[in-house]
């Protein structure tokens, strides 16, 4: 077993951990994460516009009458998430290269906006189509952000910049340093989208459509769940590794679901990140709230009994590093098996519950530190059945963890008894100096 674990760590987990720290993937991850406050706050206005109350109530009628005004904050935040993410990616990638991060973010935004074709309207002037500013344009945002900063880096390393005298304030000097890369990016993107008339968003959509479709299948949701649990079992932050690749896709699903709700259309996707957050990783990766409950009810060893009491509150709020490293689950064959496979079971149940219409798909980004029943209720726009599913999944994880936990608990209990006997023998052999 240990040989197999060493083999996996050497040839799979370590290379994947290095991949998660790759410069461009890290910039994408940090750029997406930087937009979360706007996504969370913006998505809450969807609940206000479509309150979880019967349609006959006065509150629902008022919300529908004022839906246009209520949804304006949503359309200026979550609905155009790609714009915020573009700046975040450009900023973080430039920072990793030790370039001016502000210039990196700005040049990325300029490049992304130039992928859109303004529309002329009578009595209004030119307007930008907003559809590609949301989750739909996320992959394009990643591409142009990386392209723009790489042009900026190329000009910097080849000294293709305008250098100002030392007496010039640094902020002014940085502006002139960015002048040539900005000019190149603006001219190049204008040539592509305006002169040649190429719809780059359609090209990217065609290229990534197989990935988008696959990610919303049962296999597509089970694969990241398995890999995240697998990496955590080695002490590697699974969300950081897999999330760097999968989170942009999850955000695209979330944005599309929110747009569908705002438009009154059927919700298209099953598996935004909120699906995993509230129905799979209950208490954290590995659905460890069930393990903590097992500690509280069945612990015989003093260590696990104390650990269960200590980690209950953090687990309720989805913070489970104390459980993963304190139990420990890391490199622990007795607990790795349920830690990896319980989420696969709850994922399958939740996937079919959603696709068969037993619960509504998620479309609201609720803060991840909420207790799971509350987060699930909010993320589905107030579907009470989501609470039931969360409780069912907690019960499943609790029941499956019990036999594995009891084996580990018995092992620790025997070690504690042996340590107690050893201490007694040590004290009995000490000389009596009285």
UniProtKB/TrEMBL annotation:
It is a multi-pass membrane protein. Residues 8-404 form the PTS EIIC type-3 domain. The chain crosses the membrane at residues 32-52, 72-94, 101-121, 133-155, 176-198, 218-245, 278-298, 323-342, 349-366, 386-405. The keyword Transport applies. Keywords: Cell membrane, Membrane, Sugar transport, Transmembrane, Transmembrane helix, Transport. InterPro entries: PTS_EIIC, PTS_EIIC_3, PTS_IIC_cello, PTS_Sugar-EIIC/EIIB. It is found in: Cell membrane. One of its GO terms (biological process) is phosphoenolpyruvate-dependent sugar phosphotransferase system. One of its GO terms (cellular component) is plasma membrane. GO terms for molecular function: protein-N(PI)-phosphohistidine-sugar phosphotransferase activity. Its main location: membrane. The phosphoenolpyruvate-dependent sugar phosphotransferase system (PTS), a major carbohydrate active -transport system, catalyzes the phosphorylation of incoming sugar substrates concomitant with their translocation across the cell membrane. NCBIfam families: lacE. This is Permease IIC component.
